[in-house]
Structure formats: C-alpha cells, structure tokens
Amino acid sequence: MFSTFFVNTCILVTFLYITGLISQRYKIRLHTLTHKVHWIGGALFGCYGIVIMYYSIPVGFNTIADLRHLAIVATATYIGGPAALMATLFICLGRLLLFGINNQAIVGAVFMLLVGLGCTVLSHLSWSRLPKLMIMNVFALGIIFCPLMINLKNLDDVLHVYPLQFFISMVGGCLLYLIAESINTSNELLLRLEHTSYTDHLTNLSNRRQLEFSLEEQLPQARQRHEHLSVLVLDIDHFKEVNDTYGHAAGDAVLRQLGQILMEKCRANDVVTRSGGEEFTVLLPNCAFRQALRIANQILSGVNQHEFILADGLVLKVTVSIGVTTFPGTGEDMSGAALLEQADKALYEAKKAGRNRVCSYEI
C-alpha cells in the first residue's frame, strides 16, 4: 500500500518536472498566464490525474484510493481556478469512462467534483502558495473521506487505508511545493538572464543581439507573406561634443531620453534597438516605405522639440540623422545584413547632406 502511494507521488513529481520543461520552452510565467494556458494546463494535469488512477489501490468493491486529488490541488495553486475545474472534469470523466460506470465510480466522481469546486474557490485566496496548497490538500482529503465511507460502509476498512493516504498526501504536497517552486524560480531566473542578454542596460531597449535575432525572424516572414519590412538607422549628431563638453553622465542621460522618444514614436510591435554608442536601429515589420518615412519624420520632429534635461538641470538641444530603407525595394533575395547596410548608407547620406534630416536608400 505504501509503495503504491509512493509511486503516485513519484508520477506527479515527474509530470510536474515535464510541465516545468514545457513552461520553460514556451516562456510561460505564473503571473502572466493566458486563458489558453489555463485550459491547456488544466487538461494536462487532468491527464496526470488519470495516469495516477492507473496506479491506485483497490480498497473495496469498485473502490480505489490514490493521490489524484494532488493534480487538482497543484493546478489550483499554480495555474488557477479555471484550470483546476478543467483538470477536475478530466479526472471525473476518466474515472467513469476508463474504470467503468457504477455506483462507486459515480460517488467518487461526484465528490472529486466537490474537491475541484472547493479548490477553485480556495485558489482566489490572497495567501502565499504554500499555505494555500496545504489548505487545499487538507480540504481535499476531508472530502475524500466521505466517498470512502459511503462506498466501503465500514469505518475499520476506511481507517485501514485513510491514515496512510492522508500522511503520504501531505508529504507529497510538501514535496510537490518544493519542486514546483524550484522549477518556477529556475524558469524565472532563466527568463531574466535571457532578457538581460537581449537588452541594452543603459536605455532598456533591445541590443544588437536582439536586433539580429529579430531580423533573422522577420525577414523570412516578410518574404513568405509578401509584406514590407522597413529599417531605420539613426545617429545622434555631434554626440562626441556632448560627452566632451558635459561628461559621459550627460551623454548617458541623452541616450536614455532618446530611447524614450523612440518608444513613444514607434509602434508597439516595432523592435527599437540601441545598436551601439550613439546609434539606434528600428525594425518596422509590415511597414511600407511611405509609412516608414512618416515614422522617421515623427522621430526627427520629436527629437527637435524635446528638451534633454541633464542631472544638474542643464537643458540641451540635440538633433539626429536618420537613414531609411525598405524590403523588398531592392530584391527578394536580400539578406538582413544587406538591409542594415542600405540603411547605414542612407544614414551616411543624411550626415553628408547636413545632418538633422531623414534620407532614404536610393538604388
């Protein structure tokens, strides 16, 4: 009996680890779960509960004991109420359809449904995850005692299995919590490190690495969908003089404020990047040439109107030069590097023509 309950715990822990790998692969975070993740997660944990039932203990006529309720408890704790209900429905249907429809199975399914409903309500408590999980576990075990009594009709038979089930369930709940928290912490750290590796620390914009990654992703999509992909490359005019005259702290302040202007003037799906030094690049998916020119001129106007305020209260006026190019203006077979080179050439023309202007790449 002990070994079967232990196997139940091991199965759930294994599935929990697999779920952690899935959430890591698809960058799923507990505080940003979508409705889709709720339903898929609930269905997944429901299937886990069904697997656990295959390793249950026969304790009477058509009556089994196992730890399937922990799948519901884990779902309610880490995903939420809707997912817990989905997991409960899967487990109840699994109990009836896979193990036979009879009076004992119906009683077990009804009370398991009560477990799901109760855990759904408890999932809305504003407690931390450990006490919430433990309360749900105790609640579920209290509910489970009822169908055992109804089906076995003998307290001695119930007490033969229930204390061990209760003990291993509580230990399994603690183990589940430790592993789930470890997986969640590991995933959060990985996502934070990944974000850091793709982010410019000064402006909090994307960095060159993210630009190259986005370009490798967006260019084939634009080619496949027959869409335009535009690139802006801009450079702060006479930025060296700002650093030489006012110091590097002043230069950093200008860079940060320019990054804010770019984020305000660009669209939500545009990739705004600090490419290096005083140079910025903006990747504009599904953006035709005229629209790209309009965005570039909005940026130019925004910079001209902005007063760059330094730490000591000093106000600077800064201008930028911008180069614009659009795929597939010069051919379908263009590479990402070639597209950036065209934008760089357009930027050079803007500098050559007197700065503080927008120039486009000419074939």
From TrEMBL:
Lipid bilayer topology: Multi-pass membrane protein
PROSITE patterns (alphabetical): GGDEF (PS50887)
Main location: membrane
Location(s), subcellular: Cell membrane
TM ranges: 6-25, 37-57, 69-93, 105-127, 133-152, 159-180
Annotated InterPro entries: Diguanylate_Cyclase (IPR050469), GGDEF_dom (IPR000160), Nucleotide_cyclase (IPR029787), Rev_trsase/Diguanyl_cyclase (IPR043128), Sig_transdc_His_kinase_LytS_TM (IPR011620)
GO MF assignments: diguanylate cyclase activity; phosphorelay sensor kinase activity
GO cellular-component term (any): plasma membrane
Keyword entries, A-Z: Cell membrane, Membrane, Transmembrane, Transmembrane helix
UniProt GO BP: cell adhesion involved in single-species biofilm formation; cell wall organization; negative regulation of bacterial-type flagellum-dependent cell motility
Top-level taxon of origin: Bacteria
SUPFAM superfamilies: Nucleotide cyclase (SSF55073)
GGDEF domain mapped to chain residues: 227-363
Entries under Pfam families matching the protein: 5TM-5TMR_LYT, GGDEF
Descriptive protein name: Diguanylate cyclase
